[in-house]
Amino acid sequence: MGDAMTTRRRFVQTVGAGLLYVGSRGALAGPPRAVLPGAPKETDVKLPAGGSMPMRTLGRTGVKVSLIGLGGFHLGVPRDDAEATRIIHFAQDHGVNFFDNCWDYNDGKSEERLGRALAEGGRRQKAFVMTKLDGRTKQAATAQLEQSLKRLKTDVIDLVQIHEVIRMNDPERVFSSDGAIEALVDAKKAGKLRFTGFTGHKDPAIHLHMLQVAKEKGFEFDSVQMPINVMDPHYKSFEKNVVPVAREQDVAVLGMKPMGDKIILESRVVRADECLRYTMSAPTSVTITGCDTMGVLKQALAVALAFKPLTDEERRALLARTAKVAANGRYEQFKTTERFDGTTAHPRWLDTAQI
Fold this sequence. Notes:
eight-stranded parallel beta barrel; disordered N terminus
């Protein structure tokens, strides 16, 4: 009991320290590309003895995936390839089989690191690998996919998603003649990918439009990725508006941004473990969380390995606590600013395969 209490005190103190780093981040553009001060250290978190990773079904695919998935962007943050490999291997050795990535993350370094790590000792066969493509045209998406296959050192990617569907005309673009969807269909026929999906973080109306256009075209997505967190229900809510439609269509929901890239912690009203447990308790197939250090990874694993869904009372209490600070989207900057819009900062990614 003493060890558990000590671990919890360190956990809370560590999160609190992380919250002090508010002012110096506010003016930065884009997600952080360095480990944030105050992040839990590897020795701060003790994993629960005898814990096992819960598994969930990935929508209509029937594939079983881990409760948490390792976010791909943050794999480009560790100081060297060896540390990134250690994070990937430790996650897999503790039950994580879902690995997120994207063609553009860290100029391709994130995919390269994941591919290198999974190429060792037959680890690729035990992993469900997902990546994303920015290309809106068939030509751009096809070229990006070929680069991803090479970097990931694999002949087939388990799930490929259209990345950053953040504009209301994105669905029309990808479903047009010679659009990205044609590239995915051809790649699936060629055995280069197994399943298809799309992602976005801007507005639930855009997600709903994408699902509607797909339905009109007779196309079925296998997955849809979106922000699911303790702030989301209060402002442009994906959980309230998109999740029910996705579930009705048996499209797997991939939850991301449980801490809003740590910005939600800056509200000072919730802890990291509460953020993770909230998203894990939502009707998602997987909670994708970025882990740029062993300490942050162990923090996520500790919650997952001892996971118990929030009770209705706990959920109401968390939402009551976050209601005021979440009302204007201040702590969900991916919805309210262009800070997280990679394809806005690099518009060539939409039409070329040039990083």
